[in-house]
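Q: I'm writing a short methods note and want an example of a predicted protein-small molecule complex. Could you take the sequence and the SMILES for magnesium ion and return the bound structure as tokens? Please keep the output block clean; save any remarks for afterwards.
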Amino acid sequence: MSEDGTLTTQLVLLADDNEEMSTVIEDMLDFLGFEVAVARDGRTAVEMAAANAYTLILMDIEMPVMDGLAAAEAIRLREQADLTPAVPILGITGHTDRGTHLLCQRAGMNDVLTKPFLMVQLEEKVKAACGARLN
Ligand SMILES: [Mg+2]
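A: Understood, no commentary inside the block.
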């Protein structure tokens, strides 16, 4: 709710090249009350992030054209250059190892979700990453 009592839409950018996976995640986000925009590769995600104000970005690590790590780095560089606030970025990966998580952190991501995940796990990470942005 915004101050005048109207409903505000929270828009999430979901970047994932796997259509089946992203359909599942889209349904979860929809259930949690988010509008979802989808990108199928990292470069498109970077372009969309520059053109729109998202509440959150969910970024698959392994994507064609530009992977999720490079895309997150590009988004952080552009935010620094433009002096715009950093949008929360959650990485999505099938890898559970610490190395992958460190790479995500180094690329500027806030946190990582390991596939497959339950809606409650998604909700928890989204809330932690977005904090006050969700009101
Ligand atoms: Mg992928």
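A: Remarks, as requested: The chain has a mean pLDDT of 92. The helical segments are 19-31, 42-51, 68-82, 98-106, 119-130.
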